[in-house]
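Hi R.,

Here's the chain you asked about this morning:
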Amino acid sequence: MANTQGANPANSPGAESRAEIHVDLSSEATDNDKASQNESTLRRGMQTVKVNENRRPLFDAALKGDWKAVKKILDDDREAMTTAVMIMEGEALNVLHVAVMVAPDQLVENLVKRIPPERKNEMAGEALIWAAWRGRLRMVKVLTDQIDSKDEWITSALRPAIAFAPMQKEVIWYLARRTTSDVDITEMKALIKTGNIGRISHSTHLITCLLELTLFCSYVPKDVALYFALRQPGLATSKIREDMLSPLAFLATMEPHFLSTARFNFWEKLIYKCIPLCWVDTSFDSSNDTKMARALKQLKASLWNLATTAVPFIKRIGELKFRHKYSLEFANLALVQMKTHMETPEILEFLLTNGVVKFAIIFGISEIVKLCLKHYPELMWENDMMRSMIIPVLKRRHVELFRLLNPYQTIAMLDSGLNADSLMEAIVESPPGCVPADVSGAAFFMQRELQWYKVVEDSVGPFLTDMRWVKGRHWDHFIEQRQDLLKEAGQWMKDTASSCSLVATLIITVAFAAVFTIPGGNDNNTGMPIFLKRPSFMVFTAANALALFSSITATLMFLAILTSRYAAEDFLHSLPRKMILGLTFLFLSLVFMLVAFGSALTIVLSEKLKWIHIPITLLAAFPIVLFTILQLPLFVEMVESTCWPRLYRPLKIWK
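And here is the predicted structure, written out as tokens:
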């Protein structure tokens, strides 16, 4: 029988949750067999493997997948089928177990036919767990058909499949659909309340732990968890022991499962938005699909795998989008199902005391908080709720949560006993860098800190109108806490401006010199350019002039940055705007310089090579594209952070 231990998420928010899986597969050898074993021992760390030397030929034949040799041994000795051939970590394994782990599928199918009738259920069930652990779909199907009491063994096999073979989605889905246990949520809660944990059935315990485990394992398709929650209403908010979290609260601790906590760069965000979810969502839960729908799913899965073979990071982003979708659907389903099993006061108490809202705020998962407020808007006026939300959001710098709660901050401040001074202290006292910022460069990190200070100060402004000394005290302490960051931000601005001004100066030199060394030269009699009437010459003249003017403007912007006083207030608007303008004109000057250079080459070579403008255009586009790829993310981040900061854009709960 398989004994499994549930996944125990850590109760403290900072601790790492681990799922412990213990699979005990025992096929006891007789005393005579144990006495006659001449053991050869292989030690690797703490692991001990002992091979029964009397069964060495059978062991070797199974490893090689040699059915003829295995068949001959079994024909000569009927006891060989059930006798232990190897002991691994104290567990006796027979030839079927060994074959399931390493042998071809055909050998396993042949061995299954030779299981003694009186031990078929036990041996096939134990082998099923090993097959699920290895993620071998064909073996799983064959062994499942041999088991009479399927549900107990299947639920036991599903755990190692999820824990050790999470990428084998077909195996997980096959076993999940074959489970038939129904969980009586009311009875389970009553047993937990009275302390009769031992009376909870094995299958009920397993299915609840399976639900948590599917949420815990990052690579497991999250539609499996949704499948269990749909089949067992109320399971998503239930727990086996009082010291455990419910699956919904457990999900609120899983940062990688939600978009709001994902750390994407500029290009990854763009790819994330462009990937069609219908191509990634190739769920293997096709029990209710027609043959055409199942074939279409398989086709899309094959095409998706083929298309992402050369670019695996796109597949990774697509799988993240898939995970985010089903995690959000699972959380929404749990909140909807709560309405049918619990009264509204009980639901509100559950959300506040079970850690759902608490963990979502600590880990910055705004999607769960938004769903809670959407389904139960009275939480916005709940004193305990708002008191536990506002201060952690400010201290941990959760931008998305602040955008969600900012419209209701005044209500919270009036009703929960929070005053303006405590909100300002939450911003001031939190050290910079307490939570990784989603900005690049120390200057824009400092800008984000200033934005946090200003937006909170604006929110509590009416309460500080006659307390200017309080404002000054908070501001002085805020700057004092960030002196190192301020110095680093100033150095970043200086280094960036110096490098960019050097490039702009070189473009000025080239563009200015090109005015006096025009392609083709001048007419000796009139002094006019020889190629004056050619369209390409006019392109050269205009592009060169624009390159000169743009580079001069960029140089002036960078010079203004270098001569700045670098006060803290300058990093909020002044310095970032100058940097944005400087980079804009630097990019334009680079483009115009390359256009001028390309048109000059076209003028000189077009007499003999009519097609020369094509390769020139392509070559000139290459550095422009390269500059765009390298600098566009930083530029977009600067513009968004300076001109359209997210902190000032509230999120709508109801759309």
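One quick note: The chain has four domains: 1-167, 181-339, 342-416, 489-648.

Cheers,
M.
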